[in-house]
Automatic annotation (TrEMBL):
Chain sites annotated for binding a divalent metal cation 1: 65, 104, 226, 229
Keywords assigned: Hydrolase, Metal-binding
A GO cellular-component term linked to this record: cytoplasm
Pfam families in alphabetical order: DUF34_NIF3
Family as reported in the entry's similarity comment: Belongs to the GTP cyclohydrolase I type 2/NIF3 family.
Source superkingdom: Bacteria
Binding sites annotated in the UniProt record for a divalent metal cation 2: 64
Key word Isomerase present: no
Organism, as annotated: Furfurilactobacillus siliginis
Protein name: GTP cyclohydrolase 1 type 2 homolog
Amino acid sequence: MQAQQLIDQFETFAPLRYREEGDPTGFQIGDRKATVHRVLTTLDVRPEVVDEAIENHVDFIFAHHPVMFRPAKNLDFAADPQLAMYGKLVANHITVYAAHTNLDNAPGGMNDWLAETLNLENVTSWLPNPSAPEVSMGRVGLLPEAVSLQEFADYCKSHFDIAGLRVIAHDLNQSVQKVAILGGDGGKFFKAAQATGADVYVTGDVYYHTGHDMLAAGLPVVDPGHHIEAVCIPKLAQLLQQWSIKFGWHIDVLESKPNTDPFTFV
């Protein structure tokens, strides 16, 4: 099959019109007409992931985070590991596609996967996309039973399989049950999360001063980090495997193994 066939099918699930304004989602590097035999799903395209792809004879990397958030000023491969990574991708004929905010907004996509990880019930959407108001990025739902904020923080650590997280709250003993969640960097949307009536908001990369605003607003926030979006690695693999069987693509789908979280709790 050609790379474009895979892209076309995915974009029936998460169309590019679902992406947020200015987001470099979509085709990143390579040849849309290239034949695809092995696909690697990943959260991030980092040098160790590219080395993994080369070692496993992968010809298509399917990522969540775009590999090219900012344009390269040159392609001096010896000057920067990031630029060297681009050179390896091209030299090894590896096509790269990234589904970022279109996957975040898509029904059954990233934010539904995160809500599912927390076993939220009666899940609904919030934060509509201005360009595609029929979809929303955030999700809100109920825990099976009310727990203390401390218990919920421990629950998040366990279910997201992380070593640590940050909690923004005055009282760790307060009861929470209704949870708003938004993967990635969602701190700036805390007022919209609070408007859902949520008892607690789960999102990553909360900025220091935004944390003060959250405290003043009385909204407890759990920040488990950006890397919880790695849930996409097995979920994307499952989607591609299902389509491979349905459409007779005959491709191998691999899940990336390196941990691309830049942070270590010590």
